[in-house]
Design a protein that fits this description.
alpha/beta; 551 residues; single chain; four-stranded antiparallel sheet; disordered C terminus; Arylsulfatase, C-terminal domain
Amino acid sequence: MARRRSKKGWTGPVLVGLNVAVVVGIGALLWERAQTPVDVLRASTVVDEGPAPVDWDGRFAEGADADPTCAGCNVVMVSLDIFRPDHMPCFGYPKNTAPNICAMVDHGVVFDNFIVHAYQTPVSQMTLFTGRYASSSGFVSFASLLSEDVPYLPEQLHNAGYQTIAMGSSFEVMTDMSASESARRRFSKKGLNPGLSFGRGFDRFVFTGNRNLPTDSIGWLQSPANTQRPFFLWMILGTLHWPYGSHSDPAVREMFDEPGYDGVLARERSLNFDVVSRIYGDRLYDKKGGRSVPFGPEDGAHINARYDVGLWTVDQFVGELLASVPPDVMKNTVFILHGVHGEDLGEHGYFGHYDVFDTEVRSTLIVLNPRHAAKGVRIAEQMEGVDLAPTLLDVLDLSPMPNTDGQSLKSVLQAGKGDPDRVAFFERIPLWEDIFRHKGGMPKAFVDTVTALLDAEVVGDTGLRTSRWKLLHRKARAIEEQVSWYGWLSGTPVRRAEWELYDLSKDPTEQHNVAAAHPEVLQGLQATLLQWEDSLPETKREWAPIDSSGG
């Protein structure tokens, strides 16, 4: 059994949704990749501390077979914000950050290349629940409202007779449905109201915060009254989000650090996003520009170590959750764990999620199916985020969701192998429209420049990924070359090519644009991507109402 963790492990301050969402938007608008990536150190030290692994004996149904169909089964889905699978030992990482999630890998089916559609939390999660690309559904920003005519997975399950419960600690997704009135007003003033859409079809939709989520979710699962009929329990965790490690027990925050760190971040008040958002390449810039200090490999390693502590804390929760579910419930419950999007941790000269590099859109999806005999199966072929809803409904033997961009991969679950030629698409949709409706706290000259550009058509970048190649279409580069937070801080002009092509087989961290060296590959992938772009409808952006009453 997993060791019961005290609540103090979750006592870090809950992220203020307003600050997080606004800063994410600023980063999306203003970030440009620095020219020299940080050389992030990853210590080889293995930390032996951690929760005991789950006792898996008797937790799967007898007579499991090759068919993954689980008609009438419950569903528990854990969605992890800024999840980096490559920071787990079962993906080759040298630190013992995730023993319980890795145990899930050993007992389930894993899509090693689960490609999400966007780097923004609400946008990416909505593609998972609608089975549609962002531009296809119209849900393209923090302020979007999902049209009532777009099918929605929780609603589909509710209409099929499922109890539907959402508990989570992600403000960006859940605030408006369950936060305090003052929090709702603050979010509404900023146009940040995704909860109004995510709450569709849920019988219960509760922002729990990181402190209460373990107790509330485990308590719900252990109550016999709650498990008498099929249920869908969705938990979305903001625990990994910046400021990294803040939701972890203070006693373990340094457990992955190299001893004696005394770098630039040790001299800052705290490791918070205000600091992290100003790191570009080998410099940490003053908020107003004009001053910078060196930022070295040891500082990048420190940030990575703080992220690892957050992952370890999430892993504790996952272990407790799995260990606490009554065996009779677990034998009829499909467990799904996946990343909403990833996080760049210095690979491209910044820390955060502002783009569509693999560090941010390549994730993992793990499925524990008690009726499915497959255990420890790793599927290398690509799965798109839009495939999740159609696949889950098919596994549950329910009616398919109409008009999805994704496809059911139940046959892939059964075969343990997918389509090697599968192409995944993604969008990098700037949040300019959100942020510049409310321009406080930014230099006036900078705001004036961006505001003037907003009179022009604002478009986002697109891209595709094959098993080997990554193509990015920088459609927004003309604006970004004029308006760049990195350029503003550093005084360095930003230049970028319209097309970026990366050979993932030789350059997995996407450092070298090889478009000029492979014209035939470029031409073929361009045709595929442009055809996909042309297939997307013109989206009317529906804005959530803005509450001007203050609060």
